[in-house]
Amino acid sequence: MSILIYCQENSRDELFAAMSVRFPSEKAESVGYEELSRGGAALVVDHELVPKLKKDETSHFESVYIYFKGRIYAVADADALVGERAEYINRGDWETAKDINEVLCDIDFLCKNTVNRSYPDFFQIESTNYCNSRCIMCEHYHSHNKKAELLSMETLEHMRDAIQLSRRINLNGIGEPFISKYLKQQIDMYVGYGNRIVANTNMSVLDDELIEYIGRDFEWLAISVDGATKETYERIRIGMSFEKVIGNLRLLKERAPHVKKIMSMVMMRQNVCEMPQLVELAHSVGIDQVVFLNLNPSLIIGNMQDVMLNWPKVAEYYSVKALEKGEELGVRIVVANAASLNRSITFGEIEEELSRMQSIPFWKSEEEEREMMRIAKIAEDYIAENSQEQNTTVATKVKCSGVCDWLLKSCYTNLHGDISLCCRNLIYRAGNVCSDGGFLSVWNAPLMQKSREIFYSGYLPEACLKCGMIEGGELKYLDVEIQPDFYQDSELKRQQKQKMIAMLGE
Length: 506
Ligand code: SF4
What we know:
This protein is an alpha/beta fold. It contains 18 helices and 20 strands.
């Protein structure tokens, strides 16, 4: 039998060494992606290259194997691997159990399984939905922490099997994770199973013990800083202290220098002119990367005019200035459409747009805030009476190949144990780990199965229209042919907007 090998250059020698042990009398030939169409008796795929096989590349082979960390696994042996994974879990050998789980994930992907045998390796678990800030672009601006709670150890207990097999835990949901009094106990549990920790934070809460945890257990931290000056920062992030946050960042620079730190700013009319200054500030406090995000407007807040799409020249000018400042100081900058920005845009070209943008008041008056609260009350009452949760989705005409990472390797659960489709689609709920049969049962609930089935059939589910992660090219296991249909609102969003507009009498 002739075996084709599809591998990375740097793993070729070790893979051929493993082949000579597993198939000592077979001839093996290393091939590139294009040659996979030849098909044949057997194919061995390097684990690192599995995400590239989004189409039916392996269907022309009688047998398919995966190479991972010195061992060759047969795709046909998936059931036996489930048993082997369980043995390693029983022995408390989390690292080997996670390796086998990762191979099972490759198998789920290559076989286009709608019921996954593998558990996610990136697990986002909401620590709290309470926030100590009221940022003007966030739902906490009007929700005032109503119904805020902390994740309990009892709820977490229902996810222990998934935590044993994940590699990274993200502490975030819709609140500030560092205020949870249970957080250190929960981090101890995650780390006890070999997880690394990541989090987004406003960095307003930091004590000596937490600094130790960050230095020891964290892989990266993303810190939200929406202004480079005290005035702008504190008007956007109501309740926060600029000096406190900058002081905490300096402490982390000194005591946890090796942890990757990312600063993020939501670009809005109110802070766009401070983008280059923010890069300088980031550099001075030891930040590795600055990410500028687009604002997601809210009908309740009524901040459509703050979105920088309305002020494209201003956005372009300050994005270029931020990129230049990053290049000068050695700070990596992430900004939308960086490659297509006009790097020679001048201030003269934006003056007129800038003065129109600045002629509209930046901040809500007290009367406007009262009006926002009136609208929020109407919306909350409506949501309370009409459950908005969705437990299925349908296919669109937008073509794709592969599957979203959030249905294969990543999972979002809120502090009650509700698993959602992904971190940006919380309203699509698969079920609850405490009441619906445990983690694996919810991970394979009808919503998840249906969504995987739609992806693997070559079309995008309706819930995924306008997905920012697709636009940003952040999904490793999915390719989407972006066309005008992609930018349509889903039926649910259309209905929500119409009802909201009708209720508000606009
Ligand atoms: S494609 Fe986007 S919206 Fe759809 S599941 Fe993935 S991350 Fe969520």
